[in-house]
């Protein structure tokens, strides 16, 4: 069964990789707990629910020292166009001066075990949101239907025209971090509405006098950018 899974490419998919500390590498429970907490926070969409049991964490130490081991490039063969079947090894004086004498790096990878393309995409979005939140990036989750339904996108930069960001309009949204301003017209055309609450279930929630028009562009406030 395991061989069949390999042949049919039914393998866990890496949904993200990030640099970690040596402490997190030695005890991967630290990274696992952070990821489980991120999944719990991500499960805010009524149509989406990621299960923590469908993931596993792997921590890896990448290191190389010319003093301890042979230079990896010595095991690489090169081929010329005029003789494509004859492999040659690179000479020492041809090695790049950029080849490091020594380095050590630790990375953490999150794997998704279920065989669902849609859920795999959501898992990758969850990983992306998790890393952005750790870097304190401005983030807003926008939906093209009221009550946080329909198509959705996680936006982290100014978007002068929402159709360029993979969604046509905004009829509800959740401010995850930073301060944002919605505009009824594309390219930040007025009227505009500054978002001061974490959730807006419909346009009436951010617009005065019973506003029902969707937003067509969104921008980070000056305070958030600074």
Automatic annotation (TrEMBL):
Superkingdom, natural source: Eukaryota
GO molecular function: dGTPase activity
One Gene Ontology term, aspect cellular component: nucleus
Coiled-coil residue spans: none
Pfam short name (any one): Crystall
Domain named Beta/gamma crystallin 'Greek key': residues: 139-221
Record protein name field: Gamma-crystallin S-like
Lineage of the species this protein comes from: Eukaryota, Metazoa, Chordata, Craniata, Vertebrata
């Amino acid at each position: 069964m395991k061989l069949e899974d390999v042949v049919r490419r039914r393998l866990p998919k890496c949904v993200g990789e990030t640099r970690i500390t040596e402490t997190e590498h030695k005890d991967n429970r630290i990274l696992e707990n952070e990821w489980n907490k991120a999944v719990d926070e991500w499960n805010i969409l009524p149509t989406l629910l990621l299960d923590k049991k469908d993931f596993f964490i792997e921590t890896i130490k990448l290191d190389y020292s010319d003093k301890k081991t042979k230079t990896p490039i010595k095991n690489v063969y090169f081929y010329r166009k005029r003789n494509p079947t004859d492999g040659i090894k690179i000479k020492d004086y041809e090695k790049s001066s950029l080849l490091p004498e020594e380095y050590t790096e630790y990375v953490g990878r999150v794997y998704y075990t279920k065989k669902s393309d849609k859920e795999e995409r959501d898992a990758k979005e969850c990983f992306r949101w998790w890393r952005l939140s750790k870097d304190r990036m401005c983030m807003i989750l926008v939906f093209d239907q009221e009550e946080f339904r329909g198509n959705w996108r996680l936006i982290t930069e100014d978007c002068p025209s929402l159709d360029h960001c993979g969604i046509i309009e905004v009829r509800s949204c959740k401010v995850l971090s930073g301060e944002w301003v919605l505009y009824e017209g594309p390219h930040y055309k007025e009227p505009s509405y500054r978002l001061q609450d974490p959730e807006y279930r419909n346009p009436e929630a951010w617009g005065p006098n019973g506003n029902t028009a969707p937003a067509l562009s969104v921008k980070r406030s000056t305070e958030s950018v600074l």
